[in-house]
Each structure stands twice: as C-alpha cells, then as structure tokens.
Prior knowledge:
The chain is an alpha/beta fold.
Amino acid sequence: MNNLLNAENQGINLFVIEKSAYQAWFSKQDKHNQTWLTNTNYQGDGLALMSDGQGALSQAIFCVADASDYFACGDLIKQLPQGQFLLQAESEHVAAISFGWLVGAYQYDRYITNKSDKIFASLAISNTAGNAEIVESAIKFAQATALTRDLVNTPAADMMPVDIGQAAEELAKQYNGEVKQIIGDDLLEHNYPTIHAVGRASVHTPRLVDLTWGDSKNPQVTLVGKGVCFDSGGLDMKPAAGMRNMKKDMGGAAHVLGLAQLIMAHNLPINLRVLIPAVENAVSSNALRPGDVVTTRKGLTVEIHNTDAEGRLVLCDALAEAENDEPELIIDFATLTGAMRVALGTELAGFFSTNDQVAADITTAGLKNSDPVWRMPLHKPYDDLFKSTIADMTNCPTQPFGGAITAALYLQRFVEKTDWVHFDVMAFNVRHLPGRPLGGEAFGIRAVFDYLEARFK
C-alpha cells in the first residue's frame, strides 16, 4: 500500500471538494477549464478529468457530499487513470480521503487464476507538517482493514483453527509479541471445557489462541474474538442457505486480530492480550448434543438447548479467563446473532457495554471516523429466560425474541467485575458500497482503536 499513498509535492492536481463548494471553486477556474466542464455537462458530482488543450491530463476534480466521510473517496482510486495525483483538499479532510483512497484498492484475488493486471494511480499528500504522519496512519488503518477482510474472505478449508493460530503467530512475530496455544484435549486439562465441547467433533482440532504484546507495566486491555471457523449448526444443523456464508463465523477472531495490528502498529502504551477460542462446529458421533450439560471454566453448568448457539459457549470460557488478569477493559467481537442484523441491518455494528462512559466514547469515536456503532441494552429482566430445571442455566432461551440481547446477557454472566464491551457484528458486506466490496468487512475496529488511543496514549 505504500506505493499508493505518499507524502510528496508532485503530481497532477486532484481537487476533492464538497458539492456545496463546487460553484465557488468553478468561479475561480480559468476560461478553458470552465468551458470544458460546461461543455462536458459536469454538474459538480463525482469525477471530472480536464485536459490542458494538448491532449494531456491537466487536473481532476472529485465532488462528494461529505468529504469528512472516510468512504466518500472509496471508489476514486479505481476511477482515475495511472499516474500520480497531488491532493488539493481542506486539511481537515485529508485523513478521511487518504483512508478511503487506500481501502478502495482492496481486492481479494487469492483464488483467481487470471488476476487483474490493473495498475492503480497513486496519491500524493503535500509534504507539509503532519501530513507524513497522516499518510503513515492511513496505511496502518488500511492494512488492518485488509487483514480483517482477508481472514473473513478465506474459505473455511483454508481458515481452520490451525490457520487462525498461524495468523496470530505471524502478527506476533511482526510486532515482537508472543503467542501460546492450548490445543485439543489439553483444553480439558487447562479447564476450557466449553471450547473443547463445541470443537471436539471436528477433525480440525479446537484450540485457544493467546497473543500477548506490550509492557506489562502498562494498563491491560484484553480482546476476545469468536473463532468459529465454520458453523454447520452442529446437530441442530442449519439449512443450506443459513450455512452458505458460515466461513465468516470466525469474523470476531478476524476483528480482534485487525484491531491488535492497529494497536501494535501504532505502539499504543497498553499491555495487550488477545484470546481467540478457535473451533469448527461440526457433526460427528462425539458432537455436542441438545440436552447435554456442560460445566464451564467459571464453574457454571449450562444445559444445551441448541447446538447452533455455540459462539457464546466458546466465548464464555475465554471471557472467564480474560477476567482473571483483572484488566482495565475487556472487549469482545463476535458474529453472534442474526437478531442483531434484524435489529440494525447488515451495515451497522451493534454493541453492549457495562460502562456508560466507555460506550459513549466509543460511539463518539465511530461518528468521527465513519465507523458507526450502536449501543444496545443489557436488559436484565431477560436473564430469567435462561432458567433450566437441571443446570444453572441454558445456553439460549426457548423463545426467539431479543436474541442479540439474550446472547449478550449470557456472556455477561462470565464477566462480573471488569468493564466490558461486546460487539455483535456482521463481518460481511452483502452489497457493494464505496470502498467496501462484497465480502469480508471490518466493523467497529477503527472506532475502538480511536477510543483506546484517546484513553491510553
């Protein structure tokens, strides 16, 4: 990505302005450019290329509704011809434009035989005070977004628990972190029974991936990511349509690895721990059954009402372990419920929090960097819906209403003392939007990072 964005002072002028400012900009252009724009019927919306009169490209203009939207320029890099362009924009919009420019170049072509040979244009940001840092940070945000997307987009055959562990190992190696893994039956020996119970039916051995980074003297933040590499639903098997995109059910793991990369790349002064329970929810003779009772790491017994409510089972052991360290904050990401998608659609990340100030600050951060998140309620009366006649609780209620809330309430039982944030995300784009192609997507990690940076830096 470094060759697509740089801090230099040369290139074809590219004006990125808001539609409301177009007429003022137009009035300042020379007669040649005004005539060109008028004769080509450009109305101050989208891209226009201008010639110098000799056939060469002299400058370009791109008008958007809101230049502070981090995805407003998300398709621009694919619309411009080859060459280097020098950005002309309001200083407060440079960071947003830079990020949108880079994520617009993303493409997942691992399995494409005849790959595109398109060479993208590059964007120069004038090499003035502060712009070099903006360029560097935009590259880091785009790389973290690409990592999250790549992990989600990879088919389950090539993204099983061992592969998630390898992705964590590579990230730790890059930033001088450390990874430990508890694998297979060792999960029982180390008291992670629900992770083992969900993953034991697969030939792909379940594991807990544990990445640590940073100075132990710094405040600790622990990230937990659901790593269900493929979710058949278990014995309560999903229908074909519901199973089709279940390669994305490890999207929580992808999100915490992307967020971890942002934290490490920016060298935030925190003591970071990342816990990923990685499993495949498969069907075999030893699969977890409806009606079974599992004893969790915390000691609570759980009657299995539905084997397709497995994400909360693997997460609860990891969350119980996360709280053992008494960190400042625990944040988990999971592709947990269809109910959240019903409530908020596929393009808005819902989250729950036990701390009002943390929730407000994350929401504010997301509004500033076009990574919107929406807080949902931890409505405690719904706790009654988990009653079991033979165990401490069930893993899900028998009625389907408020499914995102009840899933969060289940998880909350395993985080008693620590400030906690739980994200229930789609992790997938179901339609193309500027800078956001179909497929894997990162939701909320930029909002959370900006919050963490403001709090701990």
